[in-house]
Amino acid sequence: MALMTDVLDWLQALPQPALVAATGGLVLAECTIGLGFIAPGEAGLLIGSTTANTLPRFLILWLVVTICATSGDSLGYAIGKRFGPRLRETKLIQRYGAEGWDKTTDLLRRRGAWAVFFARFLPVVRTLTPAAAGTSGLPYRKFLPAAFAGAACWSLLHISIGAALGEAAKRLESAMSTGALAVLAAVVLAVVAVHLVKKRRKKSAAPVPQQSGQDEDLEPVA
To answer: Residues in domain VTT (predicted)?
Structure first.
């Protein structure tokens, strides 16, 4: 029973424009402050990348994801510039954690645009950095090239990994029996389940404000 091959073939049979748009949309949401907690952009990118089995598909997905990631960063920068230093006291930043915000702003003060580039590869930090850059007064003409370069390198890395995993899965399946695949699938599911439970516990332990909605999140904490 070709489990992995069936899934990959199903993904590749989906309309390519819709698949690329969905992948780009998840990345855009994950890179936008306020949505990064709920949008599985990185996981969605890896899954979508398993369909990048030809050079045109690879290049199109890379271009779209790079643009979407840069757009999400630009939205975060605009929010930071709009609210300034008082953004730190809003419910939105408290949800992420003021300590993480302080570390991000300190990194920006020390490294400038380089911090924007390297933050792209750090979960959570990459969502906070654009807004922090906006509040810190980093000029957009310096922010944008760093954000674009970081997005291009980050998306290239993840799409390459996803495409390689897709190809490796097909080869692995052809070399393994159905029973071995079932055991492997069970192990993978167990690891993913443990990871999700730990992540949920961490989120539950963090103080979450009662109100919801991005407009309310941007209100200062009393």
So the answer is: 58-163
Distance of CA 117 to the CA centre of its chain: 14
Kindly state whether residue 72 falls inside one of the protein's structural domains.
yes
- State pLDDT tens for residues 47-89: 888 888 889 999 999 999 999 999 999 999 998 888 888 877 8
* Residue 129 CB coordination number (10 Å): 34
Three-class secondary structure of residue 220 per DSSP: strand
Q: How many domains does the chain have?
A: 1
In a domain? residue 222: no
Side chain identity at residue 108, one-letter code: L
Does some domain include residue 55?
A: yes
179 or 94, which is more confident? 94
Question: Quick check: is 178 in a domain?
Answer: yes
What is the value of pTM for the model shown? 0.69
Please give the angle made by the CA atoms of 85, 89 and 93, to the nearest 5 degrees: 95
| CA separation for the pair 72, 26 (Å, rounded) | 10
Interval 122-177: pLDDT, tens:
877 888 889 889 888 889 999 999 999 999 999 999 999 988 887 776 676 666 55
Let me know how long the chain is: 222
For residues 52 and 180, the answer to whether their CB atoms sit within 8 Å is no
